[in-house]
């Protein structure tokens, strides 16, 4: 199956999760819970492989999910995870969570911004960048997803949707090399 097909399958689950979170007035708690789950699965390759393996017994998957998350997340999130196991969709969990946050950010009018930096930004630098992005986009809320990439040498790259702003030193060097090659 293509990646697009996975996104189509994941979307109704993400929409159902948004509806559940809104109806139970636990939107913020749901988002935090999903962040915890996503982080746990991302950090443990063994867990990811275990949950994605179609040959693994469903009851074993449920037992592991209960042990990991029963004291960490809301009951309806735990039940949601168990439904995903029953329907053999647990392997799509990260995509479902990604879709959930896409929908949540749209609902909250949050502008999702990816920032790659040569070194970690300070809190002050992040706040200044958020203010600039708010001005550029006329947005109220900005969510920064930061990533440190030492190959940038210095500066940073900002991605807002399909727009890319490259102020990195490596980007400037590539630009200079391109102009020197064309002459």
TrEMBL record:
<dbReference type="InterPro" id="IPR000711">
    <property type="entry name" value="ATPase_OSCP/dsu"/>
</dbReference>
<keyword id="KW-0375">Hydrogen ion transport</keyword>
<keyword id="KW-0406">Ion transport</keyword>
<keyword id="KW-0472">Membrane</keyword>
<dbReference type="Pfam" id="PF00213">
    <property type="entry name" value="OSCP"/>
</dbReference>
<keyword id="KW-0066">ATP synthesis</keyword>
<dbReference type="GO" id="GO:0016020">
    <property type="term" value="C:membrane"/>
</dbReference>
<dbReference type="InterPro" id="IPR026015">
    <property type="entry name" value="ATP_synth_OSCP/delta_N_sf"/>
</dbReference>
<keyword id="KW-0813">Transport</keyword>
<dbReference type="InterPro" id="IPR020781">
    <property type="entry name" value="ATPase_OSCP/d_CS"/>
</dbReference>
<protein>
    <submittedName>
        <fullName>ATP synthase CF1 subunit delta</fullName>
    </submittedName>
</protein>
<comment type="similarity">
    <text>Belongs to the ATPase delta chain family.</text>
</comment>
<keyword id="KW-0934">Plastid</keyword>
<dbReference type="GO" id="GO:0046933">
    <property type="term" value="F:proton-transporting ATP synthase activity, rotational mechanism"/>
</dbReference>
């Amino acid at each position: 199956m293509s990646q697009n097909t996975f996104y189509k399958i994941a979307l109704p689950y993400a929409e159902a999760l948004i509806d559940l979170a809104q109806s139970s007035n636990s939107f913020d708690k749901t988002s935090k819970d999903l962040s915890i789950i996503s982080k746990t699965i991302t950090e443990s390759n063994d867990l990811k492989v275990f949950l994605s393996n179609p040959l693994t017994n469903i009851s074993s998957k449920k037992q592991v999910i209960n042990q990991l998350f029963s004291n960490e997340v809301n009951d309806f999130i735990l039940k949601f995870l168990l439904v995903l196991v029953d329907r053999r969709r647990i392997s799509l969990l990260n995509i479902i969570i990604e879709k959930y946050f896409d929908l949540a950010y749209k609902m909250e009018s949050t502008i999702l911004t990816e920032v790659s930096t040569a070194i970690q930004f300070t809190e002050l630098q992040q706040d200044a960048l958020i203010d600039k992005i708010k001005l550029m986009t006329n947005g109220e809320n900005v969510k920064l997803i930061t990533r440190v990439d030492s190959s940038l040498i210095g500066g940073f790259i900002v991605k807002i949707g399909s727009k890319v702003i490259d102020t990195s030193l490596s980007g400037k060097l590539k630009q200079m090399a391109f102009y020197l090659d064309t002459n």
